[in-house]
């Protein structure tokens, strides 16, 4: 496997702008300690505070805009056009939207963003909160791993730049698709932290060793007694 540096995205999951700003500042790298490489803002903050606040909170940090678009191709393409002013570094759609939706998203990214400011278009495969039983409830009898590889292959063929998956699917995705997909991996739990609603989890170092390009960490940092120290510990672990 190609050696890669795994980078840290901190998920600023809150409705409160001041709280999001505080976490952003606390988790940034400084002269004295390492920190997060990017910030995630998603559905919770965006619905509560709007896109202007997202842009404001992200500031000069690379923005993982995790809105998980999933609609008919025309609507997804138009929505992506509306996001151009956000200057995201990464943007998410759901792979389950199918080939036509993903291809429309690809075309919209290429149309709406200048070449040197195009976000990485990521397709969410199977949410890390789902296990085999949850997948069965949706009518999918395959394992999460089988379904992730199926949707990941579809998404990359339709024009996605990368995939959101759990650490457990990194190896089979690399076997099938090689180094090309950017793999962004939530469901990260440092030893001793609560899984909560996440089902397919690994520690930061395990995810890094498995080949994640980025890991996404929310509550293990934001609910820690000292979020700055929690982010720094993960970043230091990733740096080896
Ligand atoms: O499959 C997915 C896709 C996205 N997420 C997002 O990642 C973070 C994880 O937060 P934790 O608090 O560390 O569980 C969160 O913002 C999710 O929306 C995901 O968990 N799984």
Task: Summarize this structure as a short list of keywords or feature phrases.
single chain, 240 residues, alpha/beta, TIM Barrel, eight-stranded parallel β-barrel, 11 helices, 8 strands, 16% strand, globular, binds the ligand O=c1ccn([C@@H]2O[C@H](COP(=O)(O)O)[C@@H](O)[C@H]2O)c(=O)[nH]1, EC 4.1.1.23
Bound molecules: the ligand O=c1ccn([C@@H]2O[C@H](COP(=O)(O)O)[C@@H](O)[C@H]2O)c(=O)[nH]1
Largest sheet: 8 strands, parallel, barrel
Total helical elements? 11
Q: CATH homologous superfamily?
A: Aldolase class I
Mean pLDDT equals 97
Major β-sheet strand ordering: 1-2-3-4-5-6-7-8
Provide the β-strand percentage band. 15-25%
- CATH arch. level architecture: Alpha-Beta Barrel
If you had to describe this structure to a student in words, what would you say it looks like?
It is a single chain. With 240 residues, this protein is an alpha/beta fold. The chain has helices spanning 17-27, 43-49, 51-58, 73-82, 99-112, 132-137, 144-158, 170-177, 204-210, 219-222, 227-239, and strands at 7-11, 38-42, 63-69, 90-94, 120-124, 162-164, 182-185, 214-217. Strands 1-2-3-4-5-6-7-8 form an eight-stranded parallel β-barrel, surrounded by six helices. Helix 7 packs across helix 8 (170-177). The structure holds the ligand O=c1ccn([C@@H]2O[C@H](COP(=O)(O)O)[C@@H](O)[C@H]2O)c(=O)[nH]1.
Summarize the structure.
With 240 residues, the chain is an alpha/beta fold.
Lay out the secondary structure.
Blueprint: E1 7-11, H1 17-27, E2 38-42, H2 43-49, H3 51-58, E3 63-69, H4 73-82, E4 90-94, H5 99-112, E5 120-124, H6 132-137, H7 144-158, E6 162-164, H8 170-177, E7 182-185, H9 204-210, E8 214-217, H10 219-222, H11 227-239
Parallel strand pairs: 1-2, 1-8, 2-3, 3-4, 4-5, 5-6, 6-7, 7-8
The structure holds ligand LLZGTKA7.
Residues 11, 13, 40, 42, 66, 124, 127-128, 164, 186-187, 198, 216-220 line the site of the ligand O=c1ccn([C@@H]2O[C@H](COP(=O)(O)O)[C@@H](O)[C@H]2O)c(=O)[nH]1.
């Amino acid at each position: 496997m190609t050696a890669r540096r795994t980078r840290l995205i901190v998920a600023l999951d809150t409705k409160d702008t001041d709280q999001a700003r505080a976490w952003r500042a606390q988790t940034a790298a400084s002269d004295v300690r390492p920190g997060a490489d990017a910030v995630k803002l998603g559905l919770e903050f965006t619905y509560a505070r709007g896109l202007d606040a997202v842009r404001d909170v992200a500031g000069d940090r690379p923005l993982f805009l995790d809105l998980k678009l999933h609609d008919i191709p025309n609507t997804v393409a138009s929505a992506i056009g509306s996001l151009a002013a956000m200057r995201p570094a990464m943007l998410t759609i759901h792979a389950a939207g199918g080939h036509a939706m993903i291809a429309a998203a690809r075309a919209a990214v290429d149309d709406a963003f200048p070449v040197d400011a195009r976000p990485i278009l990521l397709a969410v495969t199977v949410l890390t909160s789902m296990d085999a039983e949850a997948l069965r409830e949706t009518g999918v009898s395959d394992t999460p791993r089988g379904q992730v590889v199926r949707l990941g292959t579809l998404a990359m063929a339709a024009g996605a730049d990368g995939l959101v998956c759990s650490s457990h699917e990194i190896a089979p995705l690399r076997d099938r698709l090689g180094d090309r997909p950017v793999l962004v991996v939530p469901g990260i739990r440092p030893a001793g932290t609560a899984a909560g609603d996440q089902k397919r989890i690994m520690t930061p170092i395990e995810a890094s060793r498995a080949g994640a390009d980025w890991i996404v960490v929310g509550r293990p940092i934001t609910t820690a007694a000292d979020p700055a120290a929690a982010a720094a510990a993960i970043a230091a672990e990733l740096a080896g």
